[in-house]
Amino acid sequence: MLKFTKINKENPNKISAKERVKSFDEIYSKYASLKAEEQASRCSQCGVPFCQVHCPLHNNIPDWLKLTAEDRMQEAFEISSSTNNMPEICGRICPQDRLCEGNCVIEQSGHGTVTIGSIEKYITDKAWEEGWVKNIEPVEERNQSVGIIGSGPAGLAAAEELRKKGFQVTIYDRYDRPGGLLIYGIPNFKLEKDIVIRRTNRLKESGIKFELNCDIGKDITFEDIKTKHDAVLIATGVYKFREINLNTSNFNNVVPALDFLIASNKTGLKDKVEDFTNGRLNANGKNVVVIGGGDTAMDCVRTAVRQGAKSVKCLYRRDKTNMPGSQREVQNAIEEGVDFQWLTLPTEYSGNGSLKNVRTVLMQLGEPDESGRRKPEPKEGTEKDLDVDLAIEALGFEPEDLPKLFDHNNLTVTRWGTLKINYKNMMTSIDGVFAAGDIVRGASLVVWGIKDGRDAAKNINEYLENNYADKNNINKKAVNV
Ligand SMILES: Cc1cc2nc3c(=O)[nH]c(=O)nc-3n(C[C@H](O)[C@H](O)[C@H](O)COP(=O)(O)OP(=O)(O)OC[C@H]3O[C@@H](n4cnc5c(N)ncnc54)[C@H](O)[C@@H]3O)c2cc1C
Ligand code: SF4
Predict the structure, then answer these.
(1) 419 burial via Cβ count (<10 Å: 0-12, 13-18, 19+)
(2) pTM score, two decimals?
């Protein structure tokens, strides 16, 4: 260990921009084992591991780095997977620059951070290759059942933890595949879908039931789910997209970001998507404008490039430093030829039947607003028109109206529409109904979803043990499940 003074930081190779835009494959290659060992040995094993403090899961990073450096890979895997249900996924898509790596001590001393994310990915990819990732075999089966609404990272992590304790778990999802945004939101070039599918398959093989194409509130009532199970977890994420209100109603070629990304991901999974085939959700040959500056916007611009767009512009009303998305992804998009128009606000859509032009105005940053960020203000006389064949709106997501959707007015929400929970036990205003992930936090990160799912599972376990203490393990409700 402590080799950071002799060995330079080296990330796995990134495929050149020219090559990588030809496909949807992941853009980083894998470490060879010796390289992973070498890079792990750069860790300084500092007394207070700030990387661990700033990882939402408090992963035991220094420990698994040391084990990797010593080529004790199976032990590294055991430690890594004891705190994280999907380490190889977090290793790929966490914004490490803001979390673990952003707080690495050797980075502070100018040596370049330990490549924590890439090593985390390496450890668990290797574990899958070696067959160390086993199905869950609970020590005892319990009759109590838990219904989980939503199969994103929060729902999946909770399901795994509950299954380990022997509960009967059913996950309900309105989509036809499990994974939430892991499968249909995040593009393949950041996270290949096989990686997600092998995780969800393992859960199926471990006895977790998946009820797919099952929209709670439409196909089954929430009340039914509540009656069927001893406890319920709501992990439905946030899906109501924010609109820009530029009078888009008549324009078929102004589309929400998630529709565009879902169509692309489904096509990649060999599904037939009519709106992709008919061109509505396909950027091929088009002048594309993406509005927004977050991770979703970055995923859209990079997807449009790969679909063969004629030009791709990203309009963002603040400057590059103030972009909310990961700087790593912004850099990747720049390399791939995206034309960023910073400090640019769209003010009007125009066209005849379909959108032809987006009028924009330049902005300048004024005094900080209530959020502490400098407020963008329009600069007079800077209007210009852009030719557009496809406009993609990526302005973020809000929660759906769950009390209405679930026909349960006593499900309490915050003023932002997220579910209100008791932070001590993660229970909503309804007894035995818990909530986790984006539906509680608002749009967040995969790693926070996993953390919440794990915490929710712990609380559900305690709730069921306290409320349904049944020494003989007999529970009437569960008999019907
Ligand atoms: C385009 C995009 C890119 C992103 N990139 C990154 C990234 O690179 N790194 C990162 O850390 N985070 C990223 N995120 C954020 C991350 O994906 C989310 O924070 C995370 O997936 C939230 O997990 P979740 O389990 O709470 O919800 P979700 O993943 O949204 O899963 C919720 C599930 O609930 C289901 N559902 C909803 N309502 C119902 C209902 N009524 N009945 C049945 N099922 C229902 C949905 O179909 C979905 O499958 C990205 C988000 C987007 C949109
Ligand atoms: S889970 Fe994310 S933040 Fe935590 S160590 Fe892994 S990459 Fe870093």
Answers:
(1) buried
(2) 0.94
